[in-house]
């Protein structure tokens, strides 16, 4: 039995390392969920392995070099000579190019939880209770991809924040602000719910975007599959189902509106993934507001020309470049100042 438990711990450690490294493919995500559901001990072993990773991330004061020295001084404590072997680098990166702390983390994980914790002499530290919540955020003009523990992938847009709270029965994410794309790993027994204010978006396995901006309605764009949109605080408002190539608009006390949108429109709305802003006959005023989400350099538009429209694909972090192109196309002028660019007649 002990040998079997060791094997479970080792497999759990390998899965935790893959999930943390963001290297799970769709087929691997499905195999991971099947492994975890096959035996009640698997879920517990995986949770322990994740706890180890969290503690390692927080161990900045000790430092990777100190941990490496500790392990190398006590090689006999490992149950197998290869237990603490260096894993193969992911995404084609060389071991020399990886951050020492990341190398240390992956070494400990692949070795198996019990063996390497005993080697490091830190089991009591790593197995302390950890929070079931995680926060992820981006700054102004920043985008970030996060691979969650179930294999789901979240892409955060500029100035965005989410709080992840997973349990054995449900996967909950709260969008605090901004915008995020959710590519959900399928698991019908474990619903995936994104909350934005009082709106819940429920999915099983799909891809969708939720946007929560100041003084604007909540907007959900579905790229694949189907989602259910529910107003928690307004039971009189009928929940709706939104399928691929549709968007749901949730505003005030009004009914939830579902609209069909063409694939090219969806692509334009998601251009921010690639650091771009796609405009299609947008007014200069609306374009300036959109650019303000990505940069602290303001675009100020002369009210006399604010209604003029522009079409094109622009770098999200270059408001000055956009202003110059727009002025050239619309026969206007640009005046540059500190942290400001003006488009005038």
From TrEMBL:
Every FecR protein domain range: 136-228
Keywords: Membrane, Transmembrane, Transmembrane helix
Pfam family, one: FecR
InterPro entries: FecR, FecR_N, Ferrdict_sens_TM
Domain FecR N-terminal: 11-51
Ranges that cross the membrane: 108-128
Domain of life assignment: Bacteria
Name the UniProt record assigns to this protein: FecR domain-containing protein
């Amino acid at each position: 039995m002990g040998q079997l438990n060791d094997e479970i711990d080792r497999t759990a450690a390998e899965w935790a390392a893959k999930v943390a490294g963001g290297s799970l493919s769709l087929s691997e995500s499905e195999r991971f969920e099947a492994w975890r559901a096959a035996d009640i001990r698997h879920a517990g072993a995986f949770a322990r392995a994740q706890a180890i990773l969290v503690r390692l991330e927080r161990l900045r004061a000790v430092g990777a070099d100190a941990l490496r020295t500790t392990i190398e001084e006590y090689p006999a404590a490992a149950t197998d000579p290869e237990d603490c072997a260096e894993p193969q680098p992911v995404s084609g990166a060389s071991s020399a190019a990886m951050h020492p702390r990341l190398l240390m983390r992956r070494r400990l994980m692949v070795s198996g939880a019990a063996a390497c914790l005993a080697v490091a002499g830190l089991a009591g530290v790593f197995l302390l209770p950890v929070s079931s919540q995680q926060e992820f955020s981006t700054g102004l003009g920043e985008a970030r991809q996060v691979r969650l523990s179930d294999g789901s992938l979240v892409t955060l847009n500029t100035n965005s924040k989410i709080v992840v709270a997973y349990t054995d029965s449900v996967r909950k994410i709260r969008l605090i602000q901004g915008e995020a794309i959710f590519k959900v790993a399928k698991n019908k027994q474990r619903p995936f719910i994104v909350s934005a204010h009082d709106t819940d978006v429920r999915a099983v396995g799909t891809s969708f975007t939720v946007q929560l901006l100041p003084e604007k309605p909540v907007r959900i764009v579905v790229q694949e599959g189907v989602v259910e949109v529910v107003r928690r605080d307004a039971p009189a408002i009928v929940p709706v189902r939104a399928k691929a190539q549709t968007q749901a608009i949730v505003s005030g006390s009004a009914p939830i509106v579902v609209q069909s949108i063409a694939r090219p429109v969806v692509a334009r709305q998601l251009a921010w993934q690639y650091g771009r802003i796609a405009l299609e006959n947008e007014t200069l005023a609306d374009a300036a507001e959109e650019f303000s989400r990505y940069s602290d350099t303001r675009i100020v538009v002369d009210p006399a020309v604010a209604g003029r429209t522009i079409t094109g694909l622009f770098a999200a972090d270059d408001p000055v470049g956009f202003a110059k192109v727009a002025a050239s196309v619309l026969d206007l002028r640009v005046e540059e100042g500190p942290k400001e660019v003006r488009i005038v007649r």
